[in-house]
Amino acid sequence: MAKPTRWVTDTKAGHSRWYIERFRTMAAGGADLGGEARLVDAMVAPGSRVLDAGCGTGRVAAVLHQRGHAVVGVDADPELIAAARQDYPGPRFVVADLSELDLGETFDAAVLAGNVMVFVAPGTETAVLRRVGAHVVPGGFVVAGFHVNRDLALADFDRYAADAGLRLEHRFATWDLRAWHDDADFAVSVLRHS
């Protein structure tokens, strides 16, 4: 990996273990962890190929797989990928840096959920969107969601997307399609090739 991600540089020791246990506890308690996956599922045909870019513990990939899609989850954190493989057999999980991603295959859609764009290495945002976008077939889409009150301003994200050859098609304030408004603290952006 060329540069360490903010997931490594901006979190405390043991953060990955804490994150894994947090989502295992939420899943065991019956929390709804599939909102992002439901949105993607509604936007693709049955049996589509989906890239879960920055998959973390694999929760989005798992729901998409359960809904009949062929899913590849990618994350730079080997500890998160190990947990995903243990907890969610079915999807294929790969350790890789999104800014250098080259899986040698294409997908109908790609999803960057869970603040992935906030945690990539500083200065790699355009490269991440370009590499993820390069894995999406013509007519496919990239959907990214993140808190806009963190290290990534929405105007910067839009510029990075445009520089990566992607254009904004839709924007929502939540994964359940609530209308975008300028006071929203979260943005879900659907991008397509320019």
Explain briefly what this protein structure is.
This protein is an alpha/beta fold and 194 residues long. The chain is 36% helix and 25% strand. The mean pLDDT is 93.
Salient structural properties:
single chain, 194 residues, alpha/beta, 7-stranded mixed beta sheet, 8 helices, 36% helix, globular
Please provide a written account of the structure:
The chain is of the alpha/beta class. The protein has helices spanning 6-9, 15-28, 35-43, 59-66, 78-87, 116-119, 125-134, 154-163; strands spanning 49-53, 70-75, 92-95, 107-112, 136-147, 166-172, 186-193. The chain has eight helices and seven strands; from the N terminus they run αααβαβαββααβαββ. It has a seven-stranded mixed β-sheet, sandwiched between helices. β2 (70-75), α5 and β3 form a beta-alpha-beta unit. α3 (35-43) packs across α4 (59-66) and α7 crosses α8.
Write the layout of secondary structure elements.
Blueprint: H1 6-9, H2 15-28, H3 35-43, E1 49-53, H4 59-66, E2 70-75, H5 78-87, E3 92-95, E4 107-112, H6 116-119, H7 125-134, E5 136-147, H8 154-163, E6 166-172, E7 186-193
Parallel strand pairs: 1-2, 1-4, 2-3, 4-5
Antiparallel strand pairs: 5-7, 6-7
Helix pairs in contact: 3-4, 7-8
